[in-house]
Amino acid sequence: MKKTLGIIGGVGPLATMYLGESVVRRTLASKDQEHIPMLISNNPHIPDRTAYILGESAENPVPVMIRDALKLVGMGAEVLAMPCNTAHSFYEQLQEALPVPLLHMVNETANEAKREGATRTGILATDGTLKTRVYQKACAEAGLMPIVPRADIQELVMSVIYKNVKAGEPVNAENWQKIDAYMRGAGCEKVLLGCTELSIVYKELALSDRYIDSSVVLAERAIEACGYEVKNKRLSLDY
């Protein structure tokens, strides 16, 4: 049975559009009418998830995300996807409040690394995501050894996320080379891009298939959950 996809977006805005594009580009379709009906809420006013988790903000993002999700359901969404890895720290709260399934981006990404034969798996994500250990737990449950960056490398990751992508600036390639070198040196067979802003890096810098883009994984699982077929798995979105 074919279903309508709802995207709880704005977290961040560019990552939301990247997910929508990924769904369209990876759906096996030969004409407009064979694509997935999508409803997108691109609300940039959802409070910052990392700041809330780290205690730097008292603004709870969960009620706003639930409100946006319910709006999508009210408009006909039957499957929900949320292009924000950090927000999956609140997954149980969100799913309990929703009458339709919310795909678990983090678990699906870890499972993809397992399917691709990884054992030592790097995690690149926000400070908030790493603090909640949502990716570390997902990797452990999938039988993977999670590897996180040391402090100085994590600072570079946060700089790429906040000072480059979220600020609408080009990715600092020199900083990314340092991140990449560290993860290679740590023996990571696969590296999970556990932040949707890093999905933009994946596209902008044309990263190798050693990287697993959580947005691409989410797009593929969303296509399948809506009853459609995936094409061009894990390929670049370059035009």
Outline the structure in words.
The chain has 239 residues and is α/β, with parallel strands linked by helices. It folds into two domains: 5-104 and 217-226, Rossmann fold; 106-214, Rossmann fold, CATH 3.40.50.1860. Helix content is 47%, strand content 12%. It contains eleven helices and seven strands. The strands form two sheets. Strands 5-4-6-7 form a four-stranded parallel β-sheet. It starts with a strand and ends in a 14-residue tail after the last helix. The mean pLDDT is 94. One of its GO terms (molecular function) is amino-acid racemase activity. Pfam families: Asp_Glu_race (PF01177).
Features of the shown structure:
239 residues, alpha/beta, Rossmann fold, four-stranded parallel sheet, three-stranded parallel sheet, 11 helices, 7 strands, 47% helix, globular, Asp/Glu/hydantoin_racemase, Aspartate racemase, Asp/Glu_race, isomerase, Asp/Glu_racemase_AS_1
